[in-house]
Amino acid sequence: MGIAREVFGDALPVAERYAAFLAEDGVERGLIGPREVDRLWERHLINCAVVSEVIPADAQVVDIGSGAGLPGIVLAIVRPDLRVTLLEPLLRRTTFLNECVEMLDLPNVVVRRARAEDVVEEFSVDVATARAVAPLERLATWALPLLRPGGELLALKGERAAAELDEAAPVLERFGVRTTELLQVGQGMVDPPTTLVRVVAGRGGVVGRRQRAPRRAKGSRKRSS
């Protein structure tokens, strides 16, 4: 809890209420497994909160396939300057998310029941996040059309992050992305650190909207480990 206090600061009581709701209603309603309760903080809440390190101030964020609100609700708690849309197609999950938002009194969060591909005409955001939603190759086709030029997809990934990035290369090229990068955040706070794939949209970041066709990338991809 010392690390949680460092990460969440004055927002820790809100994070504690969210953790309790996940441990009870979240388990009962099948949004998280019962074995996750004992590691909620390190594996889930702190793991997601440290993503805020690389999100710019006052950003508009869409959390794709938000599920139980990870990372979207966590980011909204730790960063009240963010404007977060939780995008989730399943009714039982959006019901849970709406209850969370009301209980935690998060004025910077909106819950939207929809698939990413159904709302592509409505969004032009700074950051898209996703955790345990789909392989990067497929996730990119959902997320990149929601980004403004220069916007970023931040995908929380595990050990296969580099491999997924390689496998997604043809798709990312067709979308004309500016750069791709592997990042680790939360050093010294979570073990292992949270691994992110960051994809920066080019001027073709809004490809996928009905009126536009994919464009090829200009230049090379950026990598770091």
Helix content: 25-40%
Terminal CA distance reads 29 Å
Report the CATH topology name. Rossmann fold
Low-pLDDT windows of residues: 205-225
Roughly how many Å is the radius of gyration? 17 Å
- The dominant shape is globular
Percentage of β-strand residues: 15-25%
Q: How is the main sheet built?
A: 7 strands, mixed
Could you name the CATH class? Alpha Beta
Task: State the domain count.
Answer: 1
Can you count the beta strands?
A: 7
Pfam families: GidB
Function: Specifically methylates the N7 position of a guanine in 16S rRNA.
GO molecular function: rRNA (guanine-N7-)-methyltransferase activity
Main location: cytoplasm
Please give a structural write-up:
The protein is globular, with a radius of gyration of 17 Å. The chain has helices spanning 2-8, 12-28, 40-49, 72-78, 91-104, 136-143, 161-167, 169-174; strands spanning 60-64, 83-87, 109-112, 125-131, 147-157, 179-185, 194-200. The relative contact order is 0.13. Strands 3-2-1-4-5-7-6 form a seven-stranded mixed β-sheet, sandwiched between helices. With 225 residues, it is of the alpha/beta class. The chain is built from eight helices and seven strands; from the N terminus they run αααβαβαββαβααββ. The model is unreliable at 205-225 (pLDDT under 50). Helices cover 34% and strands 20% of the residues. It starts with a helix and ends in a 25-residue tail after the last strand. The longest helix has 17 residues, at 12-28. It has a single domain (1-201), classed as 3-Layer(aba) Sandwich (Rossmann fold), CATH 3.40.50.150.
